[in-house]
Amino acid sequence: MSTLCQPNVLFPQYKITQEQMIEHLENLHGDHPRMSLAKRMIQNTEVNSRHLVLPIDELSVHTGFTHRSIVYEREARAMSSAAARQAISNANLKPSDIRMVIVTSCTGFMMPSLTAHLINDLELPASTVQLPIAQLGCVAGAAAINRAHDFASLNNRNHVLIVSLEFSSLCYQPDDTKLHAFISAALFGDAVSACVLRANDEAPGFNIKSTKSFFLPKSEHFIRYDVKDTGFHFTLDKAVMNSIKDVAPVMEKLNQDTYSQQCAENDFFIFHTGGRKILDELVNKLSLPADKVAPSRHSLSEAGNIASVVVFDVLRRRFESKPKTGSVGLLAAFGPGFTAEMAVGQWAA
Amino acid sequence: MSTLCQPNVLFPQYKITQEQMIEHLENLHGDHPRMSLAKRMIQNTEVNSRHLVLPIDELSVHTGFTHRSIVYEREARAMSSAAARQAISNANLKPSDIRMVIVTSCTGFMMPSLTAHLINDLELPASTVQLPIAQLGCVAGAAAINRAHDFASLNNRNHVLIVSLEFSSLCYQPDDTKLHAFISAALFGDAVSACVLRANDEAPGFNIKSTKSFFLPKSEHFIRYDVKDTGFHFTLDKAVMNSIKDVAPVMEKLNQDTYSQQCAENDFFIFHTGGRKILDELVNKLSLPADKVAPSRHSLSEAGNIASVVVFDVLRRRFESKPKTGSVGLLAAFGPGFTAEMAVGQWAA
């Protein structure tokens, strides 16, 4: 039995509304033949605002991968420690109780990883296992949870600190003028989360019962990076929107095998917000009451798609709604591969 | 009980001797004030030859991170599948038996990770757990082994495929003229390995009994990347040479706790080859007979420091020397952080 404790989610100081973002793109690419289509599509994302690590004016002139990597490391060091200290406290633990630290981040690259910084800054034990995950994109948060659950299953003192950190704005490529690049530039947001998975049930939270990984064959082109002199360039194939029909039966089976009930009978859902359409598809293919995915819609609206941080932001909202002990929930996220990671469990208040 | 089965190690087609590399550097930087010191230091590395994914003449003009990333992905796809098929066969398994795929590589970046390519190309199960590790550098191979051992400890059918792939030559920065950059350019080599960790003892190999992670506080500057428009720039602080004295007692304790004997009493060692001095320090601080680290010295001499692939190349040599069943061994690697991962176990013929 492992428990996802109350996460701590931090947002960087700059904020941009979707109206401001559209205005920004129109100023940059006003003569682009598909700008009015892009504008309509961005309005359809249901993202109202996003947080950014730098002001949009600074991001609109690409300062180079060298400079962006310096900004990434500076902000990552500053924000991750603060987030982590609070998360360890939320779990009623001390830094010396942590046995593994996982960092997920696909929007910058550091070696040593931020795991080393966290061990130093928080004074975690010298025997702490480090697991930095950079290449699982939006599914990395749920993948970290599932790997932490595996590690916790080995020993009831194997508590895991998970820090997820995404500065998607540092992957904003103002010179990319394909339609999907405009949408991405208005969809992804910046955020940092920290969360402890306790290797027992001695704190309130989401008790994980079982987990599952899923890979959709021949879908590597759905979500990918081109790695260039200017950094990571995100590309998306709209075929990804049809992938939920393939993963929904896997979610149903996991739910059925664990609790002998259909997903629609669950009390709550902690879903990644790939975007509005992905959430619509989940509601549709799992036959869910629409309000059950409201926390994911609120996260999307207020912060954009914050990649590997999303599941923790939705979990945070779940804590605020104070679910009843014993209520059944399903956590799931999706990302490049195409890959899904999911976990089912029960709430313990 | 888990078993590291016979690995498969592949080298790219181009080869350069150390004499050719020195000649190359002298041609590029003949007027550098420290070139004769660099030459002596390179001769002291005891690296005789290395394999490269491109001819040295092509590498000597930096074609940009965009182009190098394309080469990285092309070669990674081509070489990893071939290596993996043979490794699965070595373990007397079929692709459908694999439950987790780990890819370690710090010398290029892909998203989706090569884990996705391997699931597609080898037709691994859709439920395969993916664990790409990019930020643990030279320690990643041993870290992968230890995480695979953890996963295998959960279920005796949790067989893990580990593919390690390093094209260090694609991080060669011909314009870096610091002394340590010259040494790095002549130290690191290219290689690909694949190895299966079986979740039981039904194949010959290295039975892992227990594992340990170690982090040396305040040592993030020992081994690090600067991430620039031109890709990853490796930097090394010579203070790293003094780190073995701190990790040796941890290795001794793991060995003592598991087999009630000192490391010097072990039958064999599977050591990462950070370089000649690191091996000298291991021999010295663990009071080992010098010939016990010969397979690591041979790997260094014939292939250079092949980063996360090293432990698998040394394991391959161990298989060739046909150890006796029951002989006790210690596997250890070191990398950025400063981080060490180690495992002790016994040979099963």
Walk me through the structure:
Two copies of one chain form a homodimer. Helix content of chain A is 37%, strand content 26%. The mean pLDDT of chain A is 96. In chain A, helix 10 (294-303) packs across helix 11 (310-320). Chain A is an alpha+beta fold and 349 residues long. At the A-B interface, helix 4, helix 5, strand 6, helix 6 and strand 9 of A face helix 4, helix 5, strand 6, helix 6 and strand 9 of B.
Radius of gyration of chain A: 19 Å
* Intertermini distance of chain A: 15 Å
Number of strands of chain A: 14
Largest sheet of chain A: 10 strands, mixed
SSE sequence of chain A, one letter per element: EEEHHEHHEHEHEHEEEEHEHHHEE
What is the global morphology of chain A? globular
- Multimeric organization: homodimer
Helicity range of chain A? 25-40%
Low-confidence stretches of chain A: none
Content of β-strand of chain A:
25-35%
Structural class of chain A: alpha+beta
- Work out the largest interface and the residue count of each chain: A-B, 58 and 58 residues
Q: Number of helix segments of chain A?
A: 11
Return the average pLDDT of chain A rounded to an integer: 96
Keywords (chains A, B): Acyltransferase, Transferase
InterPro entries (chains A, B): Chalcone/stilbene_synt_C, Chalcone/stilbene_synt_N, Polyketide_synthase_type-III, Thiolase-like
Family (chains A, B): Belongs to the thiolase-like superfamily. Chalcone/stilbene synthases family.
Organism (chains A, B): Chromobacterium sphagni
